[in-house]
Amino acid sequence: MAISMPMVWSERHRLHEPGGEVWVGVRTPGTELPERAERIRRELVRRGAPLVEAREAPNDDALRLHDPALVDYLASAWERWEASGLTADPGQDRVVPYLFAHPGLLGEVEPIEPAAPAALAGRFAYDTMTLIGPGTWAAARSALDVAITTADLVLDSDTAAYALCRPPGHHATRGAFGGSCYLANAAAAAARLADQLGRVAVIDVDAHHGNGTQSLFYEDPDVLTGSVHVDPAAGWFPHFLGAAREAGSGPGAGANRNVPLPPGTGDSRWTEAVEGLCRWARQGGARGLVVALGVDAAGGDPESPLEVTAEGYRAAGRALGALGLPTAFVQEGGYDLATIGPLVAETLEGFEQAR
Ligand code: SP5
Ligand code: ZN
Fold first, then answer.
1. 29, 43, 177, 241 — which has fewest CB within 10 A?
2. What digits encode the pLDDT tens for the residues 135-168?
3. Which ligand is nearest to the CA of 24?
């Protein structure tokens, strides 16, 4: 077997070195490492995928889904942090939020623009784990270039392409970042496809609920958003969102679908859930597809308790391919360095097998 769809990437992903994550107040090593993308690239090249360098997309295209305040913040967060002296005293070499502009704190009051960089971080970050370092902005911005270049290749070729995005994006919302995500890569690809194709679907197979993608299109009937994930209510990120009852609202009512699965779920129930989302997207009239391709549902991944195998990912690829739609794959999570490349490759091969 070989992979014929192009893989789009940017070496600028390497500029993002999260430097771990602050989890329950403790700086832990973290798993969203630069090596992830290198492993995937090597494996797909080995299987024949043509490598394409991302083109720089204009900011107006790339950033249109986000609040300009979030964009301005992310672009300047590291410089503000460094200038504040926090790197020396108390000696924190990444941007970490200090308190949060929680709705329970603010009520109806418009918050002050705080002078303290650690306070400002808590206006835009919704967790403590998603750290910002010197190259984070450049890398996050390049991941959007990768996603948009991929969508353009799909539109030009009418077939499929793969976006090797890093950092990932499906947890980023219009105005906030978290879950190792800063900017919404898959959503940007979906918006690009929807511009040309009308109604499109995002099917998110990452082990975690795609809360950012969901929220960006929650009221939009023309971007169907479906996600299969480990049940957040059972103790998994993002904890507060991802229930089956979240179905979209207003004109988007019915255009969001969540399939939470119990910890320990393996191939058969997981691939059935993916197939169900495929049927839902077809019945909903999707003319294009974005696959938010996290491979952290694999057994052995350190960030999720799902037990999907390489054969499960291949089966998911076949189901997605059988839809016959112009398709952009966008990389999300997947943290087991030994298997991340093969798992992505199996999915893409299954997809091409079914075309
Ligand atoms: C894109 C993506 O997959 N984001 C997932 C982020 C979930 N991170 C939650 C991390 C929770 C703390 N991890 C501790 C691991 C201890 N083994
Ligand atoms: Zn994930």
1. 29
2. 999 999 999 999 999 999 999 998 999 999 999 9
3. 1
Nearest to 350 by CA among 314, 311, 308: 314
- Report the C-alpha gap between 184 and 33 in whole angstroms: 18
237 lines ligand 1 (CB under 6 A): yes
pLDDT band at 25 (very low <50, low <70, confident <90, very high): very high
Q: pLDDT tens for residues 329-348?
A: 999 999 999 999 999 999 99
* Cα separation, 131 vs 173, whole angstroms: 16
Identify the DSSP state of 260: E
Q: Which of 210, 139, 162 lies closest to 341 in space, CA to CA?
A: 162
Q: Is the CB–ligand 1 distance for residue 20 below 6 Å?
A: no
pLDDT at 1 over 80: no
SS3 (DSSP) at 303: coil
**Which pLDDT does position 158 carry in this prediction?**
85
Helices of type H across 16-135: 34-46, 59-62, 68-84, 103-106, 117-124
Q: What is the residue type of 314?
A: R
CA–CA separation, 218 and 215 (whole Å): 5
Which tens digit of pLDDT belongs to each residue from 207-236?
Answer: 999 999 999 999 999 999 999 999 999 999
**Is 297 buried (19+), middle (13-18) or exposed (0-12) by CB count in 10 A?**
buried
Q: Which of 180, 303, 336, 343 to mutate to test the pocket of ligand 1 (most atoms within 8 A of CB)?
A: 303
H/E run at residue 327: strand 327-331
Catalytic residues: 171
Q: Give nearest CA residue, ligand 1 atom 9.
A: 237
Ligand 1 and 25: CB distance under 6 A = no
Q: At what angle do helices 310-322 and 267-283 cross, to 10 degrees?
A: 10
